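Re: the request from the purification team.
They wanted to know what the chain is likely to look like in 3D before they choose a buffer screen. I agreed to run a prediction and write the result into the notebook, where they can find it.
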Amino acid sequence: MQGPRGQQNPGDNIHETVGAYALGILDDAEATAFEAHLATCEWCGQQLDELAGMEPMLAALADLPASQGTPAIGESLAARPSPQLAERLVDEVSERRAVKRRRGLYLVAAAAALIIGGPLTVMAVNGGGTTTTASPDSAMATSPAKAAFDVMTDKKSATDPSTKVNAVVAIEKKDWGTHAVLQLKNVKGPLKCSLIAVGKNGERETVTSWSVPNWGYGIANAKTEEAKKPLYVHGGAAFNPSEIDHFEVMTFDGKRLVEVNV
C-alpha cells in the first residue's frame, strides 16, 4: 500500500498502520497515535472506509475450522480484534446468516406452492428479468402452468400473419394485479422470448421470459412428440385486467412474434 504524496517522510510508515487499525489489533498507545494521525490524513481516512467493507468477510473467514496441521484463520492472527470491532463483526455475520436462512425459507415455501399448483410461483422464485429454459407440457403429467390454463375462462388468442406464431393468453384478476398464462404454438428456436403486458396508458411490464430450443414448440408437422407440444408459461403483472390493452410475445433482440388483444 502506497501512501499519499507529500504528507509523510519516505521513512515514515504510519500509513501502513491503517490495516492493523481496521482489524483492531493495535494496542492502546498505537491506536491513539494512529487516530491522531487519522484526524489530519484524508488518504488514511479513505483507506479505512474501503477496508471497513472487508470486515464481514474477515470475520467469516475467522470462523473456518482448522485443517490437519493448519490452525484456523482466526487463530493465526497475532492478536484478537478489539472487543468493539469483534462485536460489530459478529453482529454483521449473524445478520447475513439470518438473511440467508430467511431466503432459504422463502424458496422452500415457493417450491411447495408450485407443487400444490399455486399460480405465479415461477415469478416468486426467479424474480423479474430472469430467463428460464421452459419445457413443453410433456415434461410432466400436468404442469402448473397448463393446469391453471385449463381452468381459466378468460382467454384471448391471435396468430401473427407474418411469423405464423399462435398465442393464447388466459388471464385472471388477483389482489396484486393479473395472473397470465401463455400457450404458444408454431415457434422455432433457438430464441429467448418474453411475454409483455402493455397497458392502456402505454406502460409495458414483463410477465415472464423463457428460452425456445432448436426444435421449437407446437410445430404441427414436427418429427418428435416433444416438438409438437405447445409451450405453457405463466407469470404476473401489476396491471389490473381492465388496465391491459394487449400482450406481446417479443424476442430478446426486439422482434415481435405475435400480439394478442385483450
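For the purification team: Confidence is low (pLDDT under 50) at residues 1-11, 73-81, 113-133, 137-141.
Please add any questions underneath this entry.
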